[in-house]
Amino acid sequence: MRRPLSIMRVEDDCIDILYKIVGDGLRRLSEKKPGDVMSVLGPIGQPFRPTTERPNALLIGGGVGIPPMIYVADYLRQQAGDWKPLAILGSELPFPFTDRTSALETPWVDATINATMPLLEDWGIPCRLATLAGYDGCFDGYVTELADKWLATLSKDELAKVEVFSCGPTPMLKAVAALAAKYELPCQVSLEEFMACAVGGCAGCAVRINTPEGEAMKRVCVDGPVFEASTVVW
C-alpha cells in the first residue's frame, strides 16, 4: 500500500518530502538510494487556495503537518502581490530542522520567543515555534495560543486581510478551526487521513462534511485533503 505524504517543496525537477519513520513502509522508504525506482501517484486531491483579497496568510503547522505550510509559504513568496505570510509551527518532538534565532521582528510576542525555521527566515517570512517540550526560544504552549496572541493585536481592517491555512493532527486542526471562528476568519485545513486507493474508489478516508444539502461523507483523497474548516464535522 502507498503511504500518503505531503509535498514540502518543488524546485526545478525535484520534489522535497519530509517524513517521519513510524512503520515498516516508511522505514523502507528511508533506505532508498539515488537511482532506485519507485511507484508514485500524485499530486492528488484539492490544494490550498490563497486569495489576493486576504494576503496576510497565517500558516499553522503541527508535527508532520509542517511540510505543507512550507510549501504554501514558498508558493506565496513567488507570487505577484503584497503577500505577507506568518508561520507558526509546533512540535512536541525535536523539530526536523536546526532552529536559529530570528532577526525578523515579531513585536506581538515576547522577545525571548525567537526560535525560527532557517529556511523561512532566509525567505524573509516571519516564523515562530511553539512546543510543550521546553525547547529554547520556543513559545511554551500550543500553536493556537501563539496564533491568538498575534490575532488579538490586529484591528478589524487588518483581520479582514487574514486567512488561516493549517495542517496537523486532528485535535490541533479542531482547535485552529475554533480560533478562526473566534475571529470570523476563513480557514482552510488539510486533513490527515490514511488512504488506501487514493483515487476515491475505496472510501476508506471519508470524513463528515457539512454541505448546502446537509451533512455528507467526503473522501479526503479526492474531495480534500483541503476543506474549509467551518464545514468539517469535528
The fraction of residues assigned to DSSP E strands is 15-25%
Task: Give the end-to-end Cα distance, rounded to a whole number of Å.
Answer: 27 Å
Poorly predicted runs = none
Order of helices and strands: EEHEHEEEHEEHHEHEEEE
Report the CATH architecture of the largest domain.
3-Layer(aba) Sandwich
Total helix count?
Answer: 6
Overall mean confidence score, pLDDT: 95
Overall description:
By secondary structure, the protein is of the alpha/beta class. The chain has two domains: 1-25 and 50-190, Nucleotide-binding domain of ferredoxin-NADP reductase (FNR) module (Rossmann fold, 3-Layer(aba) Sandwich), CATH 3.40.50; 193-234, Ribbon (Dihydroorotate dehydrogenase B (pyrk subunit), domain 3). Helices cover 21% and strands 23% of the residues. It contains six helices and 13 strands. Strands 8-7-4-3-9-10-13 form a seven-stranded mixed beta sheet, with helices on both faces. It has a two-stranded antiparallel ribbon with strand order 1-2. Strand 11 and strand 12 (214-219) form a beta hairpin. Helix 4 runs parallel beside helix 6. The longest helix is centred in the last third of the chain and has 13 residues, at 170-182. It is globular, with a radius of gyration of 18 Å. The chain starts with 8 loop residues before the first strand and ends in a 6-residue tail after the last strand.
List the keywords.
234 residues, alpha/beta, Rossmann fold, Dihydroorotate dehydrogenase B (pyrk subunit), domain 3, 2 domains, 7-stranded mixed sheet, two-stranded antiparallel ribbon, 13 strands, 21% helix, 23% strand
